[in-house]
Design brief:
The protein is of the alpha/beta class. It has 3 domains: 3-241, Acetylglutamate kinase-like (Carbamate kinase, 3-Layer(aba) Sandwich), CATH 3.40.1160.10; 257-338, 2-Layer Sandwich (Alpha-Beta Plaits); 340-399, VC0802-like (2-Layer Sandwich), CATH 3.30.2130. Helices cover 33% and strands 26% of the residues. The longest helix is centred in the first third of the chain and has 25 residues, at 63-87. The model has no long low-confidence stretch (mean pLDDT 95).
Length: 403
């Protein structure tokens, strides 16, 4: 008998027919003699719809009340899925995040899981029940509901798999696995058989929505092997693990992130300590800075440009305008029309010319590069948002020519 954690995303439970389909996958697994813990997301676009509803009432609603609202989406899903499993004549119990023992910190809207006390889940499993758990949510030390950030149900599933020492953690979604690019956007995207945690973490962080990056971080930390697969077909999926057995590819994928802003400060004094001041003040306000570019000093001044997520742009500009005396009266530009395109692959470490090949693909479609950043296993460029899709297509075609 194995213990299996299965996670189903929003599109997998979007309507009654899909919920019944999930119930069949779960009960087939249970009837094959396994213990099954299921984690579900809110149905379809429920979370987006709830965010819109809140904005109609109060666009500046507190994060605490937002979490109270958003967590309700998953409550609907667990009850409906449990009902569908009952209809398949299997014993089942649905549990909210707190009932399943999820304790988090108090960062409403992007809470981190601190512990999972899985006593209740284990008791239900010992009683031969299938357990259906609401993803994306937990309870903080004030007994308030928190949510884990968009896509957070993946992390709920991995956390449960880790504490329960599950034999398998399956992430069911609406595509057949992890691809070399978003298969909905790039028609020649190839499905990967396997990918390492490190590569998957980069892909997820750089915009491949298929897995939430925190879930990959946690899977690596607790050595939880993940299988990403479709809830709609029976095709084999992608395995995410520490070391892969397949031949080393130069690249694993191309991603895009359009949720970024590019902020430039013009005419910063060219003196020691100014970068420290700027970036420490931003850090104090939890503004995550990504790519940084500084021009050479000329006539005692220089320009500093950096990117951050679009959600942090307003705070960032506010910090620069109000809390750094040296920047008083300086021009601060915020451009939300930028996108970050990245290539990821452990193989590029030992392949000179990878960056040049990426830049050539962009040159061939006449796309201008605004900023560049690299690490051992990734290269990112900042370009105009309008060019993002054709850039991904061109770079993908360059590295993964049609066979
Ligand atoms: P779920 O609701 O199951 O959590 P998501 O919408 O969060 O699903 O993630 C699945 C989506 O991720 C796919 O529909 C696909 O369009 C997108 N995606 C982006 N990049 C990739 C990639 N490299 N491989 C697979 N899917 C990707
Ligand atoms: N329902 C949440 C979201 O849409 C969590 C998730 O789907 O993982 O972000
Ligand atoms: Mg998701």
């Amino acid at each position: 008998m194995s213990l299996i954690v299965q996670k189903f995303g929003g599109s997998s439970v979007a309507n009654a027919e899909r919920v019944r389909n999930v119930a069949r996958i779960v009960t087939d697994c249970y009837r094959a003699g396994n213990q099954v813990v299921v984690v579900v997301s809110a149905q379809g676009d429920t979370t987006d719809d709830l965010i819109e509803k809140a904005a109609e009432i109060n666009p500046k609603a507190s994060k605490r009340e937002m979490d109270m609202l958003l967590s309700s989406g998953e409550q609907i899903s667990i009850a409906l899925l449990a009902m569908a499993i009952e209809a398949e004549h299997c014993p089942v119990t649905s549990l909210l995040g707190w009932q399943a023992g999820f304790s988090t910190n108090s960062a409403y809207g992007s809470a981190r899981i601190k512990t999972v006390d899985a006593a209740r889940v284990k008791a239900e499993l010992d009683n031969n029940h299938i357990v259906v758990v609401a993803g994306f949510q937990g309870l903080n030390r004030y007994d308030d509901i928190t949510t884990l950030g968009r896509g957070g149900s993946d992390t709920s599933a991995v956390a449960l798999a880790a504490v329960l020492h599950a034999d398998r953690c399956q992430i069911f979604t609406d595509v057949e696995g992890v691809y070399t690019a978003d298969p909905r956007k790039v028609k020649n995207a190839r499905k990967l058989k396997e990918i390492t945690y490190d590569e998957m973490l980069e892909l997820a962080t750089l915009g491949a929505q298929v897995l939430n990056n925190r879930s990959v971080e946690m899977a690596k930390k607790y050595n939880v092997e993940l299988e990403v697969l479709s809830s709609l077909t029976k095709a084999p999926g992608t395995i995410v693990r520490e070391v892969t057995n397949v031949e080393k590819m130069l690249l694993r994928g191309v991603t895009k992130d359009t949720n970024i802003a590019r902020i430039s400060i013009i005419g910063v004094p060219d003196t020691p300590g100014i970068a420290f001041k700027i970036f420490s003040k931003l850090a104090a306000k939890n503004v995550n800075v990504d790519v940084i570019l500084q021009s050479i000093g000329r006539d005692g001044t220089k320009d500093i440009t950096f990117t951050t997520s679009a959600d942090h742009a307003e705070t960032a500009v506010d910090v620069l305008r109000t809390s750094i005396s040296e920047l008083a009266g300086k021009q601060i530009l915020c451009d939300e029309g930028a996108a970050k395109i990245s290539i990821v692959g452990a193989g590029m470490e030992s392949h000179p010319g990878t960056a040049a090949k990426m830049f050539e693909a962009l040159y061939e479609i006449n796309v201008n590069i605004q900023m560049i950043s690299t690490s051992e296993i990734k290269i990112s460029v900042i370009i105009d948002k309008e060019d993002a899709d054709k850039a991904v297509e061109a770079i993908h075609a360059k590295f993964f020519p049609e066979v």
